[in-house]
Amino acid sequence: MAEVKRRDSWGSRLGIIMAVAGSAIGLGNFLRFPAKAAANGGGAFMIPYFISLFLLGIPLMWIEWTLGRYGGGFGHGTAPGIFHSLWQKNRFIKYFGVIGIFGPLVIFIYYLFIESWTLAYSFFALTGKYTALMDQNSLRGFLAGFQGLERNQYFNSIGTAYIFFLLTFLLNIWVIYYGIKGGIEKLCKLALPLLFIFGLVLIIRVMTLGTPDLNKPDWNVLAGFGFLWNPDFSALKSAKVWLEAAGQIFFTLSVGIGVILTYASYLKKADDVVLSGLTAAATNEVAEVIFGASIVIPAAFVFFGPVDIKSIAQSGVFNLSFVTMPLVLNKLPLSAIFGFLWFFLLFLAGITSSVSLAQPAVAFLEDEFNINRKRAVTIFGIVSFILCQPAVFFLGRGVVNELDFWGGTFFLVVFATIETVLFVWVFGMEQAWDEIHKGAQMSVPKAYKFIIKYITPLFLFIILGMWFIQEWLPIIMMKNVSGADKPFIFCTRLGLLFIFITLVVLVKIAWQRKKLRGIKQI
Ligand code: PFF
Description:
Amino acid/polyamine transporter I; globular
């Protein structure tokens, strides 16, 4: 007997679109994108970026929405169950699905800490804690002191950062505790419009910066946009630029990791996925290519010029946003208010993404272990709280970068490859095409039948292949890790392996229990 219990659901179509767009629009749009674009050939970066959007991002968006809705029909909201429903004869495929819980969990444990900095800085802006600092070094010291990387005149311990981490953690747990409709959907419907308003105000502020230093007439807003958009075509010859662009598309759209599978599993059978998926992706692209590109880079350019900005962009993802941006705003009137708008925008973008990262693990406990939501969220809260600690305390040892590599880069591509191959080659393209179009309010352009079947998987295999050839050995051997950090990175990897194995065992137990209770697995 197949048993499908009642699951949570979205309150409205707008609700799920907002939630998926909320997951997609995140720190990736405002911190990662401008830094990657500026560091990888400016406007030329946008060529592989848009190619990846059309050949990888949008197809995967449709694949995940469709697979999620399909799995939800069998009571499965996470990849182990969904993969099993797709290929019932294969006993092992459910274990590949573990990546769809593991990946989001890994991103969650470092993303949350970074998100908590944005909440802290919103508060600091309003209380004027950093608004008197007028040079890069002071603001850099302020950030390092706050992060607990050094003791200085601004902070003498990681205590303040920890309080904001706790607050952010509790806020996230609180939202997921109220479930899909009562928590996540409500949050996103409120946060997303607010985020767009804040973004617009900041763009207008940046556009009207003019030429603050009259001795340097070339340092103006238009030239700032030129810096980001003028193409350096030689960058296109570098495989790394292509990988970075494809990686950015995955990360920014939240595809290839299992999150959208879970969100879409709360749809009803006849709900449209084609137009909704496209709308969510388009909303994210507006937030990234227009908003993400129009705030930090032009603002920093006007004050620091083309040479310094490049070195700032290359010196780390966080420097542009947490050092340069507050510095620029400090030089302007109403710095407290604009500082707040900037950091609170980041916080809203962050929280609507982090709750989506938590949901697969919660859904897994609910769906496969029959645990009710409140207990599932409590278990998730305790476990993820413990897992967050190394990211908080060993940031300076490269732990966050390591987690970002595995959770936020490597497994994204692996998982995307598995789900694409399963969908088009195992489930079958004809059936897949029908499934995508159930309840659809627009049809997918015919060319996509070919793209999804051949180009998307081929592109994914090429990316994976290039990775293995170029980067596998140095990464495994920790070639770029300093001697002092090696033990930390090694322990992080062991920890990740432990989490992965635990999840594999949980999947095995879940399936065995259902078998014992005579529930036929679909
Ligand atoms: N898309 C988010 C961002 O751009 O910050 C990050 C993210 C959220 C990645 C959810 C992956 C994910 F599943």
